[in-house]
Specification:
mainly alpha; 12 helices; UppP
């Protein structure tokens, strides 16, 4: 395996790890990078492989929240606890489940079509959509807490995540925008967005195991895939921490400018340089 190939895949792993948590569309970045660097990784198997690395990193970052929710669910469902903490986490879990359903159903129905034959120019246009959505909620400061979420709120956020199945539409951006739009504070919106990411990403990984195992590139590029996976794992962890800091400071608008800049580049590349 040539060194340049390992470097290219290491770069893709870094790109996935950094862009998966932040609202700039990791899938869109991979489409652009593969086109520019001429890396053949057809279909969704490579993206899902790297997405699994991001999932593991996010599970680690939010491990305390996940453990707390599971404990309170056990107390509520099995032990009959009805204190405020148990009730809040039970309702919160129901909201997560409801918000997961739209993207789960759409992913199952469209998994053979999503990501196929997507052009760099189309990704550029979708990055503009992401940037505009982020622009509209840049100054919105909600005050809803976890226990204030309603079924309606969950459906709205779930539908916003559905839209993000399109490369160039950021998944984290769509769910953060949806969460803030229904009134969650930026901190709680970020937490809900990442906890919502877990079941959808886990489900995608499970139903795509066969695609990954049967990936024709896996036998010859296993080392490149492994390097990309490890780099994605660590890069995602640090990117989540960075995004948490940005959200605390209310600087989400920087991602609007970035989406506009990269979207412009992608469109120009498609129609002028490609």
């Amino acid at each position: 395996m040539e060194l340049i190939t390992l470097i290219k895949y290491a770069f893709l792993g870094l790109l996935q790890g950094v862009t998966e948590p932040i609202p700039v569309s990791s899938s869109g970045h991979l489409v652009i990078a593969r086109e520019i660097f001429n890396i053949e990784a057809q279909g969704l198997s490579f993206e899902i492989f790297l997405n699994t690395a991001s999932l593991l990193a996010i599970l680690f970052v939010y491990r305390h929240d996940i453990i707390s929710i599971i404990k309170n669910l056990w107390r509520y469902l099995v032990q009959g606890a009805r204190d405020q903490e148990a009730i809040t986490d039970f309702k919160y879990t129901i909201c997560l489940i409801i918000a997961t359903i739209p993207a789960g159903v759409a992913g199952l129905l469209l998994k053979d079509f999503i990501g196929e034959n997507i052009s760099v120019g189309f990704v550029g246009l979708m990055l503009f959509v992401t940037g505009i959505a982020l622009w509209f909620i840049k100054n919105k400061r909600g005050d809803k807490r976890d226990g204030d979420l309603t079924i309606k709120d969950s459906i709205i956020v779930g539908l916003s995540q559905c839209i993000a199945l399109t490369p160039g539409i950021s998944r984290s951006g769509a769910t953060i925008v949806g969460s803030i739009a229904v009134g969650l504070s930026q901190k709680n919106a970020l937490r809900f967005a990442f906890l919502l990411y877990i079941p959808v990403s886990l489900g995608t990984a499970l139903i795509s195991v066969g695609d990954i195992v049967n990936d024709p590139n896996m036998n010859t590029l296993w080392l490149a895939y492994l390097i990309a996976f490890v780099i994605t794992l660590f890069a995602t962890y640090f990117a989540v921490k960075w995004l948490q800091n940005i959200m605390e400071k209310g600087n989400l608008i920087i991602f609007t400018y970035y989406c506009f800049a990269l979207g412009t580049f992608a469109i120009l590349y498609q129609f002028i340089w490609a």
